[in-house]
Amino acid sequence: MEINKVNLKSKLNTFNEYWNPKIVGELNNQFVKLAKFKGEFIMHKHEQEDELFYVIDGKLFIELTDKTLE
Fold it and tell me: Which of 3, 18, 41, 60 lies 20 to 30 Å from 67, alpha-carbon distance?
């Protein structure tokens, strides 16, 4: 089994557009995607996959029905 490293800063420097996820790897048969966000992100869900929000710079507020996560 081969393990590949992904340098997030390097990958993020390869694009400038917002709201356009880029596939940078794969883990357990699921894609690892990076995206740049700006402004409001509309609530949505995916029935067959999970999402991870890893904030590198700035702040992300996620509004749930009973609380807001920062």
Answer: 18
pLDDT for the residue numbered 12: 93
Cα(62)–Cα(52) distance, integer angstroms: 12
pTM, two decimals, is 0.69
Instruction: Tokens for 48, please give them.
Output: 């067959």
- 8 Å CB contact between 60 and 53: yes
* Contact call for residues 32 and 26 (beta carbons, < 8 A): yes
Q: What is Dmax (Cα atoms) for the chain?
A: 43
Residues 1 and 5: their CA atoms lie apart, in Å, by 13
Considering only residues 45 and 33, tell me which one the structure prediction assigns the higher pLDDT: 33
The tens digit of pLDDT for each residue in 40-59 reads 877 777 788 778 888 988 99
